[in-house]
Specification:
By secondary structure, the chain is α/β, with parallel strands linked by helices. The chain has helices at residues 14-26, 73-82, 101-122, 153-172, 198-208, 228-239, 257-268, 294-300, 308-327; strands at 5-9, 31-36, 64-67, 86-89, 125-131, 176-181, 183-185, 213-215, 222-223, 225-227, 245-249, 255-256, 275-277. Bound molecules: nicotinamide-adenine-dinucleotide.
Amino acid sequence: MNAKRVLITGAAGFIGSALAHHFDTHYKDIRVLALDKFRNNERFSNGNLKSFGHFKNLLGFRGEVIEADINDPRTLEVIKDFAPDLIYHEAAISDTTVSEQDELVRTNVNAFLSLLSLCEKLGAHMVYASSGATYGSAKAPQKVGEAEAPNNAYGFSKLAMDNAALSWSKRTGGVAVGLRYFNVYGKGEFFKERTASMILQFGLQILRGTEPKLFEGSDKIYRDFVYIKDIIQANLKAANATKSGVYNVGTGVARSFSDVVDILQAEFGTNLKKSFIKNPFKSSYQFHTEADIAPTILELGYAPEYTLEQGIKDYADEIRRIYAQEVLA
Ligand SMILES: NC(=O)c1ccc[n+]([C@@H]2O[C@H](COP(=O)([O-])OP(=O)(O)OC[C@H]3O[C@@H](n4cnc5c(N)ncnc54)[C@H](O)[C@@H]3O)[C@@H](O)[C@H]2O)c1
C-alpha cells in the first residue's frame, strides 16, 4: 500500500467502518480520516433513517473522525486540507427503497462528482462503492457493461456514478475504480436496521425463537451474498489498480433466501418452520443476482474466500453477540 493519507467517507457505516478498522489495525504509518454524517432522527417517507452512521461502528478505531455531510461544500475544504492520496468513498444513501429521488441523486451522484473534481486537483486515487442494483432484472450472471437496467432510483444513482467516473477518467486521466458490491453481510451492519442483510435479520429471528419470515417464492429468489471480508479484500486490491474500471464484487454464486435460513438453522441448531409473507417491493425487486466476477479476478486479482456457509460460520458469533448485547439489552 503506497498511500500515506486515506480518506474514508461513510466511515461510521457498515462497509466504511470495516475499512477504517482494517487500516487502523494493519497500516500503522497511514493517516486515516473517517468521515461520516452520522445519524440523527430524520427519516425518509419509507420510515427509514436518512443516514445510518453509528458511533458504535467506530469503537476501537484510533484514527481521526469527523462529522461532515458530503453535500456540504465546506466538507470539500476539509478534505482538501487533509489532502488524501487515496479515497474510499462509501458514503451514500444506501437504502434501495428510498423514493425521494432528488435527495438520492444529490447525495449519491452530485457529491461524487464534486469528490472526483477534488481528486483531479489532489491527484488522489478514487475507489468508490457502486452496486449490483445497477443491473435491475438483467439476466444472470450480470456482466459490467451489459444490460444494466436499474429498477429503483438507488440503482439508477449508482449507474450514474459509474458512467460519471468513466467519463471523468477519460477526460482527466485520473484513476477511479468502481466496485459493484452485490449483497454484503457481516459485522457492522446491525445499525442499518431494516436495511441490514437478510442474513442478519433471519439470524436474529431464529435466535429469538420466532419463525423466519421469507417472501413468498423465496426458494426461487437468488442473491449473490458476499461476506464483508471479501469486500475488504476487493477494496485493497482496487487501491493498487493502475487504470479506471467498474468491477462486480460478489462470489459468482447465487443462493436462495431459503438456503440462507437453512444454513443459519444448521449453525444455530434450530429447526423452526419458515413462514411466508407477500413481497411489498415486487415491482422494484431483483429476483436473481449473480455477479460475473471474471474481470474482477483477472484485472484486480480478487479471489473471494468465503462461500455462504463459510461466511455465516465466521459471522455466527457476532450475530449471537448482537442478539445478546443490542437486541435483548
Ligand atoms: N451493504 C451492501 O450490501 C451494499 C451493496 C451494494 C452497494 N453498497 C454501497 O456501499 C456503500 C456502503 O454501504 P453500507 O452497506 O456500508 O451502508 P451504510 O448506510 O451503513 O453506510 C453509508 C454511510 O454513509 C453515511 N452517509 C449517508 N449520507 C451521508 C452524507 N450526506 N454525508 C456523509 N455521510 C453520509 C451514513 O451515515 C452511513 O454511515 C454505499 O455506497 C452503498 O450504497 C452496499
